[in-house]
Write a structure and sequence with these properties.
By secondary structure, the chain is α+β, with helices and mostly antiparallel strands. It has helices at residues 7-15, 35-51, 85-93, 95-107, and strands spanning 22-30, 55-61, 76-82, 108-116. It has a 4-stranded antiparallel β-sheet with strand order 2-3-1-4. The radius of gyration is 15 Å and the shape is globular. The mean pLDDT is 90.
């Protein structure tokens, strides 16, 4: 299962609306004994998040799914706000970040990273 975005996906993310802020939904399934590695990654990644203007909005453990197919339960959920797609792309390609991202890769058995944008209110 995939846990890291590939280079082409990151380039496409940055290409479309590079200055647009967004919130990244992270759905995480830990590998056996992966939680400790992910916690270490999170501690180290916090400095990069601040450096590139990101903000952790929410982090929590997944509980029993109320509506889901078999195998769709997640161990953890995070919401991270980034000031722009370009800032996110710069962060994940920073050599220092890439060094610690190995901890994240080892910690996870599966992940979903989904950029989101807010719904706009329509005049009605």
């Amino acid at each position: 299962m995939a846990v890291d975005p590939d280079k082409a996906v990151l380039q496409e993310l940055a290409r479309r609306n590079p200055g647009e802020p967004f919130v990244m939904l992270n759905l995480l399934r830990f590998a056996a004994d992966g939680r400790a590695s992910y916690e270490e990654y999170s501690r180290r990644a916090a400095a990069f998040l601040r450096q590139y203007g990101g903000e952790l909005l929410y982090a929590g453990d997944g509980n029993e799914a109320l509506v889901a197919e078999e195998g769709q339960a997640w161990d953890a959920v995070l919401l991270v706000r980034y000031p722009s797609r370009e800032a996110f792309s710069r962060m994940v390609t920073d050599p220092g970040y890439r060094e610690i991202s190995r901890l994240r890769s080892r910690a996870l058995a599966e992940a979903v990273l989904q950029p989101t944008t807010p719904w706009t209110r329509r005049a009605g």
